[in-house]
Design a protein that fits this description.
By secondary structure, the protein is α+β, with helices and mostly antiparallel strands. 31% of the residues lie in helices and 18% in strands. The chain has a domain at 27-89: Hypothetical protein apc22750. Chain B (Translation Initiation Factor IF3, 2-Layer Sandwich). The protein has a four-stranded mixed β-sheet with strand order 1-3-4-2, with helices on one face.
């Protein structure tokens, strides 16, 4: 019966991994967007900013991190390179069951 604990552990890890992937606690790839339609049905959380001392290459990461700290998973910016934006919490779409 040595195989049973290993299978149980594997199943538990699989479930935990799936739950982590579906969590809104982290911004998805491309979580900084200029598309208002992407966040249209989402909850506005607040404004986020990247300071003037933030390197241009790090602005989106800084905005993402600030949004994440507020419980958001998207940042809407007005244009590429913008140092401020609005953080939104968007729910994953519900999958209809048949």
């Amino acid at each position: 019966m040595k195989g049973l604990p290993v299978r149980s552990l594997a199943a538990t890890l699989l479930i935990a991994g799936a739950a982590a992937c579906s969590s809104n606690s982290s911004l998805p790839e491309g979580g900084v967007t200029k598309s208002e339609s992407l966040v249209a049905g989402c909850q506005k959380v607040g404004d986020v900013t990247a300071g003037d001392n933030t390197a241009p290459a790090d602005v989106n990461t800084t905005l993402s991190n600030e949004a994440r700290s507020k419980g958001a998973n998207y940042v809407l910016i007005a244009s590429d390179g913008a140092r401020q934006g609005t953080a939104y919490r968007c729910e994953a779409p519900k999958i209809a069951s048949h």
